[in-house]
Write a structure and sequence with these properties.
Helices cover about 45% and strands about 15% of the residues. The protein is built from 8 helices and 7 strands; from the N terminus they run βαβαβαβααβαβααβ. A 7-stranded parallel sheet has the order 3-2-1-4-5-6-7, sandwiched between helices.
Length: about 240
């Protein structure tokens, strides 16, 4: 596949929306997903190739990396959207297990895929190719209830800087740090209202806000090592 645009975690929510919108813009999207779900039919109906992979294990990461290398001769963009989000368990054993899972999904998977696809990214016929890491506004100001999640996203933010240095000048490497984009089903109405109240624009952003940030990075030829906050002003609301 030439000039592929690869997006991880494209089976639902933000990843699915971005995959559909980028395909609509003419990119040759290749979608990774973890779990088979009915939303994937939206991708398959548009002839978007879908690759399953478990990024929570080293074996799953290596299998996906090998599959992508075999399939993609050149890569226009690699978007690391796959993510997991939950509170840190109080049980030490459960917390340790969660740390391992978040480390694999948020840090090791992007690291290995960036390495494995560096040649294909450099083979892109456009002036630049792109890597986009989806981090989080709490990578800089962690919430103790989500300390493992925040730490792994902070690690990804640091890798963003490292790869920007390593892969220049051909590959631009940037990050998007979302705030309250789309609440989970388990967020209570009270929690949602509290978060919105702490957000300057007083609303959740929706998936389109992340797509627009991705498109901005793909279009801008003079950005690397940067981070776009897409959070409605939540990160500065209490400054």
């Amino acid at each position: 596949m030439d000039e592929a645009l690869i997006i991880t975690g494209a089976g639902t929510r933000v990843g699915l929306h971005c995959a559909l919108r980028l395909h609509q813009q003419g990119y040759k999207v290749l979608a990774h997903y973890h779990t088979e779900r009915e939303e994937l039919e939206q991708l398959r109906q548009r002839q978007i190739p879908c690759l399953q992979g478990d990024l929570s294990t080293r074996e799953g990461i290596e299998q996906l990396a090998e599959a992508l290398v075999d399939r993609c001769t050149s890569v226009r963009a690699l978007i690391h959207n796959a993510s997991a989000f939950e509170t840190t368990p109080t049980d030490a054993t459960a917390a340790t297990d969660l740390f391992g899972r978040f480390y694999h999904i948020h840090m090791l998977a992007p690291y290995r895929l960036n390495q494995a696809l560096s040649k294909a990214l450099n083979n892109c016929t456009a002036e630049h190719s792109d890597i986009v890491h989806i981090t989080d506004i709490f990578a800089d100001n962690p919430n103790p209830v989500f300390d493992i999640y925040c730490a792994s996203k902070a690690g990804l933010a640091n890798l963003n800087l490292s790869f920007a240095k390593q892969l220049a000048p051909k590959v631009k490497v940037n990050a998007i740090a979302p705030g309250p984009i789309r609440f989970k089903a388990w967020h209570s109405e009270a929690v949602q209202n509290s978060i919105i109240e702490q957000t300057l624009l007083k609303t959740e952003g929706g998936e389109e806000a992340i797509y627009l940030a991705v498109q901005c990075l793909l279009d801008n030829p003079y950005m690397t090592g940067g981070t776009i906050k897409v959070d409605g002003g939540r990160s500065i609301a209490n400054l």
